[in-house]
Amino acid sequence: MIDWSQNLDVSQVSTGNELPQITIPITLQRLVMEASANYDLSLMHHDKRAAKSVGASDAFANTFFLMGMYERLLREWAGPTMRINRIGNMRMMSFNVVDDVVVFLGKVREIDGNSITIDMQSAVGERITSSAFAVISL
Amino acid sequence: MATEGWGKYGTWEETESFLGNVIAVSKGADAVEYGSIRKWLESKQFHPPIHLNKQAAEQAGYRDVVAPRTMAFTYGLPAYFSEDSPLEQSGDSATQIPVPVIFDLPAPCIRSFATSVDIEFFADIYVGDRITCTHRLTDISYKTLKVGSGAFLTQEDSYTNQNDELIARSELVIFRFNSPEDELRKKEEANND
């Protein structure tokens, strides 16, 4: 459980700190719920046949889901008052398909006043599926 | 050839005529509201009170329930079907998420994939807000990759609320291309004409 009464203070953060990782299984039900909620209704995100036509082995998570999971990673680490200023250079490297278990990871790269830059990745086992950096203010 | 893949078909000269210009404007289908925020959180099993509860949001310094910042993408999307859309029939191609740099911008390519997204946030999104997204073509960079030849096209999206306040600005880079097989078929078709 997350203690949402706590806010991270910049004095508690050091370069190289790792954010608590999030593990989330990609189930077909999650993909359907996600597509409905984020309104990217492209078939490849919930239909195996459509996904195969673009080279994936099964239906795969969309970009909005990955963006949202990066937001979750940051919010659960830093607390309610943190502001996300940028999610930069997000690259999609491989598909996050049904039955994958995706881990979202983050590591503090730089601290400048109350502004913190964090490098982030999603991975399935050893395979990196996306990467990005975030700039937040505490 | 234009009918075999997807994307608006045209010449590179037509593509270049859009450089620096607005390609499309999307009016978000729905105002920001509690139910859509809750559903967006639910699929991620993410339950921060600032996005669900007014008192918790106010305690954290927000003026009301605030939407997750990356929901700008969702609230900037137009409806898939409008009142004058024809009834979707079995066998029709599914309506795609609108990506103007693919579907509204002419280019001599039938394939595409996204390579990167970058988004900066400038203001919070609150319950009741209406988001509009203005899409511009800001860069064309021709390239041949293993998958084929084409160009990286950069679409800049500016998200504004009902007060014309800039909420977020993103850059989406899409590679539009033809595979070597597509190019071969194109030549054969040209020879047959």
Describe this entry's structure for a reader.
- The complex is a heterodimer of chains A (138) and B (193).
- Chain A is built from 3 helices and 5 strands.
- Chain A is α+β, with helices and mostly antiparallel strands.
- In chain A, a hairpin with a 2-residue loop joins strand 3 and strand 4 (115-124).
- The longest helix of chain A has 16 residues, at 63-78.
- Chain B is α+β, with helices and mostly antiparallel strands and 193 residues long.
- Chain B is 21% helix and 30% strand.
- Chain B has helices at 12-16, 34-42, 54-59, 72-75, 100-103, 180-192; strands at residues 22-27, 111-121, 132-145, 148-160, 166-178.
- In chain B, strand 4 and strand 5 form a beta hairpin.
- The longest helix of chain B is centred in the C-terminal third of the chain and has 13 residues, at 180-192.
- Classes of the chains: A alpha+beta (138), B alpha+beta (193).
List the helices and strands and how they pair.
The complex is a heterodimer of chains A (138) and B (193).
Chain A: E1 22-25, H1 28-38, H2 48-53, H3 63-78, E2 83-92, E3 101-112, E4 115-124, E5 127-137
Antiparallel strand pairs in A: 1-3, 2-5, 3-4, 4-5
Chain B: H1 12-16, E1 22-27, H2 34-42, H3 54-59, H4 72-75, H5 100-103, E2 111-121, E3 132-145, E4 148-160, E5 166-178, H6 180-192
Antiparallel strand pairs in B: 1-3, 2-5, 3-4, 4-5
List keywords for this structure.
heterodimer, A: 138 residues, alpha+beta, 5 strands, elongated, B: 193 residues, five-stranded antiparallel sheet, 21% helix
